[in-house]
Design brief:
signal, Peptide/Ni-bd, SBP_5_dom, SBP_5, Peptide ABC transporter substrate-binding protein
Length: 590
């Protein structure tokens, strides 16, 4: 899934470089990290939330505030594809399965949510059956049924002309999924025939091929129930019917959302949620520096998990007391440059390889915030995703690029110079800085790229994720950050490399890569029961993709989160890109 890139200010680049050695200290937690803060409270220490739950508490009351510098793609659980929204949506939308709150890799543990148990596979992994917990109700007291889960999957995957923002795994893998027109065009009550609901508590998925990681797929918010009678398509976001511990009190598009306790949520049906705060406020379009101030004051959480700004980063890394309230962790994500394989001359491998060798990755890493923000990358898969194998198909001395080799490849491509455009998100200064560093590298070899900036909220729906748009606008290069939809090679690779995942809007295979070999390997992998064999296939896919040079790995993403002291139950989880698990955050006693 797409993760929100950390944000920095250009003016702070010098400060980041100056404290590069200090940033390395965040790899561990020392006695010096355990400091008393300005408000007189003792910190748990740097990286404490990557190792356990900080400020564990069952105290009820108060308001938890989340802040964001832009707007999310959507609060609709069936129409979102950002890690932070997958995380937040669990408060009001319960999927069949979810991830257990826990530090680091412990957070990758799958547990039943709406379902009573994990899925029961049959037919070699082509059929999966789930039973719902008894006594489940919506916020209005009406019962939640298996038909509502079926409908939620249908609307989120089979009405791409209406809801295009989420992934389309179900559409790709359900039997007869290519024939079903979706619930807005199909006015019958039957729906997709390959999803059966023999009774109100049973749902059966029939797939066209074996899918050995299907429990991960039903952990997406697309399986959170939606009552058909209350669905208003794209406008459902204005009146979402809660199945979780919180419900919407108000929603102002582009401004804020306020959630309050769902009085019809029953803890007897939910062993995961605690329903601690009285209110949850999500503030949108907040100045990034203001977010930092609020987080470090202990009064807000950076919703998207961007981490502290560059100016704040310099401040916290040189102040032991402030550094003690930070968590630096991998996020199962990579930052990369997608190359448009359908746009001339990048349809030729030699031109794409010229880009690979031209880029000074150290300058990109510096622009992103230094080693504390990410390690220099050379593979598609990051080190914390199964299937990763150390490799570097386009190695250069000190990762600073090879101008001579890039120019030779450009000649082999039949070019002496190339004019193209590169995209970055306008509300992400750090991504803009990284793109600028790439532009400077490419210019040295004769590739002249102009920067085009587009807002995050529409990056995939209107711009980089629209194949016709990028062709028309001569966009050959696109900044991208990607995290695993679930912690496996398939969960990371499918939506960015499979040709079948390419869509006309909301597309995340930005390279428009459609390799029969890679498509077949992905299909083989997901049907392979043996985990070791499956992971070796992911390694092969990584190698083939790099041999074809369809994207340039830049950094293996790391995040430096500010940890607000006034909140409880803070734990950084690998399941949601290193963000804090939002399920049970509460407010501490003042």
């Amino acid at each position: 899934m797409e993760g929100k890139a950390p944000i920095m200010r250009r003016s702070a680049l010098a400060a980041i470089a100056a404290i590069g050695s200090a940033s390395l200290l965040l790899a561990g937690c020392s006695k010096a990290d355990d400091n008393t803060n300005e408000n007189g409270t003792k910190s748990a220490g740097a990286n404490a939330a990557t190792k356990g739950v900080v400020n564990a508490s069952d105290k009820k009351g108060g308001t938890v505030t989340y802040e964001m510098s832009d707007v999310p793609d959507s609060f609709d659980p069936g129409n979102t594809y950002y890690a932070y929204m997958y995380n937040l949506s669990r408060l009001y939308a319960r999927p069949l399965m979810t991830f257990k709150p826990g530090p680091g890799d412990e957070g990758n543990t799958l547990v039943p949510d709406l379902a009573a148990t994990k899925g029961q596979p049959s037919d070699g992994g082509k059929t999966w059956t789930y039973k719902l917990r008894p006594g489940l109700e919506y916020e209005d007291g009406t019962p939640i049924t298996s038909k509502d889960v079926k409908y939620a999957v249908e609307r989120s995957n089979f009405a791409r002309d209406v809801l295009s923002l989420g992934p389309n795994y179900f559409q790709q893998f359900m039997a007869d999924g290519d024939k079903y027109k979706g619930p807005y065009k199909d006015k019958s009550d039957k729906g997709l025939s390959s999803i059966e609901t023999p009774d109100d508590t049973t749902i059966v998925f029939h797939l066209k091929q074996a899918f050995q990681e299907f429990d991960y797929l039903v952990a997406t918010p697309q399986t959170a129930p939606v009552p058909k009678a209350k669905d208003t398509g794209v406008d459902y976001v204005k009146h979402i019917v809660s199945s979780g511990s919180y419900k919407f009190q108000s929603y102002e598009d582009g401004k804020q959302a306020v959630l309050v306790r769902n009085e019809n949520w029953d803890p007897k049906t939910d062993p995961l949620r605690k329903q601690l705060p009285d209110k949850i406020v999500v503030k949108l379009k907040v100045n990034p520096e203001t977010i930092d101030q609020d987080v470090m004051a202990g009064n807000a959480i950076d919703l998207v998990g961007t981490g502290v700004q560059a100016s704040t980063q310099a401040e916290v890394l040189t102040d032991p007391a402030k550094k003690a309230n930070t968590d630096n962790t991998y996020g199962g994500r990579s930052v990369y440059l997608a190359i448009n394989t359908k746009l001339k001359p990048f349809d030729k491998p030699e031109c794409r390889k010229a880009v690979q060798y031209a880029i000074d990755k150290v300058s990109v890493q510096t622009a992103e915030g230094g080693p504390v923000r990410g390690e220099i990358a050379s593979t598609v898969l990051p080190p914390d995703i199964p299937g990763y194998a150390k490799a570097d198909a386009y190695a250069t001395k000190d990762n600073k690029g090879d101008i001579a080799k890039a120019k030779d490849l450009l000649k082999d491509c039949g070019q002496t110079s190339i004019s193209t455009n590169i995209t970055a998100r306008s509300d992400r200064p750090q991504e803009i800085d990284a793109a600028t560093a790439i532009i400077n590298s490419l210019k040295k070899v004769g590739i002249n790229a102009s920067l085009k900036q587009y807002p995050s909220g529409k990056y995939f729906t209107d711009y980089a994720g629209v194949p016709k748009f990028i062709q028309k606008q001569n966009i050959g290069l696109m900044m991208m950050q990607w995290g695993a939809d679930w912690p496996s090679g398939y969960g990371f690779l499918q939506q960015i490399l499979n040709g079948k995942a390419i869509s006309q809007s909301g597309n995340t295979n930005l390279s428009l890569y459609d390799s029969k070999e890679v498509n077949d390997l992905l299909g083989k992998a997901i049907g392979t029961q043996d985990t070791g064999e499956r992971n070796s296939l992911y390694t092969q896919i990584d190698k083939k993709t790099m041999d074809d040079a369809v994207l340039v790995p830049l950094t293996y993403f790391k995040v430096l989160l500010g940890r607000p002291q006034n909140y409880t139950n803070l734990v950084s989880t690998a399941a949601f890109s290193g963000q804090y698990d939002y399920l049970n955050i509460g407010v501490a006693s003042k």
